[in-house]
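From: lab user (bench 3)
To: helpdesk
Subject: output format question, protein + S-adenosylmethionine

Hello, I'm new to running complex predictions and I'm not sure whether the block I got back is the full result or only part of it. Here's what I submitted:
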Amino acid sequence: MTITIDTDTRRLFVETNGNKQELDLYSDEAFRVISDLYLKVGWNQKYTYTFSWMGRPMIQLPDDMLRLQELIYDLKPDVIVETGIAHGGSLIFYASLCKAMNKGRVLGIDIEIRPHNRSAIEAHEMFPLITMIEGSSVDNQIIEEVKNNVGDAETVLVILDSNHTYDHVLKELELYSGLVTPGSYIVSTDGVMRDVADVPRGEPDWVTDNPANAAEDFVKANPDFSIGEPTWPFNESTLSGNITHWPSAFIRRNG
Ligand SMILES: C[S@@+](CC[C@H](N)C(=O)[O-])C[C@H]1O[C@@H](n2cnc3c(N)ncnc32)[C@H](O)[C@@H]1O
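Helpdesk reply: Thanks, we reran it on our side. This is the complete output you should expect:
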């Protein structure tokens, strides 16, 4: 792909496999082209490895967390379950929203909670709203522990951010979708892998081996669920569609 930007004439030219397109630089279409490239270059440069929430590293694109915040405030879940804790920043982000809403709690699962991460999370102001379970998210015993912890909560939101292979995410979707209550979501993060397969830090097989493909195949086999980004609660622009590392991520349980 060749992208040429002329800021003097305010035109953006895209050429893909011999197909040429000329766009007004100050248009929604041009913003999408520029954003897609920003996402690819930023992913390669580990832009998401530069953020933290209330002192803990949070390995996410801020756009995605703000969009997720919109959903959390709308749903006001009783329990937010997340697979993949790492340094704990995302768990603390959800817990801080629960604290501010005076509703909900957070359950995190990770195959390895490193001692320094565990002690920092346990010492954090938000820890009273957080439970952590150590083990593989797809292990039967861990699933039982998760189910027991969630109990009969009225509204449950699930976020999948552990191992991002197609097989693992599909298995998580099958195992955790049962926890999701009607009208709520299971969010299959990091489908951006399929769009960054060709960047220097990418892997060629990510074109198919990624969470977005797992999500799309999951909904084909499970008609109770559908993929769609929640509507923006505020939008005084002509833009639509998230700037995201999470394509095909928001899977809603119809109801
Ligand atoms: C991308 S990081 C999570 C980032 C975190 N959610 C955040 O926003 O900062 C992925 C985590 O998944 C964990 N993980 C990998 N395989 C797993 C598995 N089978 N079950 C549970 N966690 C797993 C890793 O140990 C790692 O901490």
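A quick orientation on your result: The chain has two domains: 2-44, 52-253. Let us know if anything else is unclear.
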